[in-house]
Amino acid sequence: MKPFIFIFLFLSSQIQASTVEEKIYILGGDLTTNNGENFPYLTFNDSNLFTINNPIIELSVNDVLDLWIINFDSVPHSFEIKGILNNIPIISAGDSIQVSHQFTSSGVFIYFDPVNYPQNSYTGLGGMINVSDVTQNKFFWNLKTHQSNWNTSILAGNTPNWNTYNPNYYTINGNSFPEINDDPSARITGVIGDTLLLYISNTGQSTHSLHFHGYHAEIKYSSKDFNHVGRIKDTFPIYSMESLILQIVPDKSGEYPIHDHNLVATTGNGLYPNGMLTTILIAP
Length: 284
Ligand SMILES: [Cu+2]
What we know:
Elements: H1 2-15, E1 19-32, E2 38-45, E3 56-59, E4 64-71, E5 80-81, E6 96-102, E7 107-112, H2 119-122, E8 126-131, E9 138-146, H3 151-155, E10 169-172, E11 189-191, E12 196-202, E13 208-212, E14 217-222, E15 232-233, E16 235-238, E17 243-248, E18 254-260, E19 277-283
Parallel strand pairs: 1-4, 3-8, 9-12, 11-19
Antiparallel strand pairs: 1-2, 4-6, 5-7, 7-8, 9-10, 12-17, 13-16, 13-18, 14-15, 14-17, 18-19
The structure holds copper (II) ion.
């Protein structure tokens, strides 16, 4: 009988879902650029201390996410997971709400504040939930753009004319070049033959076209169009509030640039090189 018991235990472990409990805190602070400019900013945070990053929530397929959202800001906010959870009530200043959802397929899912859309989301309140069954060689990019002279006015409750949006800063996980390469969650590193997975969300208000030098990548997931899965190429458009999973299997060693092909996005308030520019570093 022993083999049958073993098989039963093996199968039951494959379908077991776990419940992941997380808390995120809405907090205001400043984004400081590497040019030394400061502008007000809002993010979701792991604790009641402000950081420029929105937490990356990592789940396995079939996990149930139990999420508390705590509003430490002085004005009302809300919460939405694009395409999955909406119609969540307003969270008053000082209040909190709990949401729960089981994620039954892999992908990158954007969470954000839908209040006054896109203003609150633009000023920083947007992050990513990654659902996969892979534990190794994962890298994460949350893309955002900023028009630094807009934030004070937007956070005072004003609505800008989005037709005149002209961002002057471009960040990946809150950083611009060269600091992106100091973020081990963003900077792609590996050795020849590795399977490297890059989870990308665009929670800003611009479209980007990411160009990979040195290696081609394969689309493993696209929130915009399922038919794009399987395409192997070196440039990947990503629209606002869309997400991608790319896979790279390096065939050679070296260090190669990856950047937004819209070259204004590789500047910071007119200075080059800056913005959405990083390198992939592959060892023999
Ligand atoms: Cu290029």
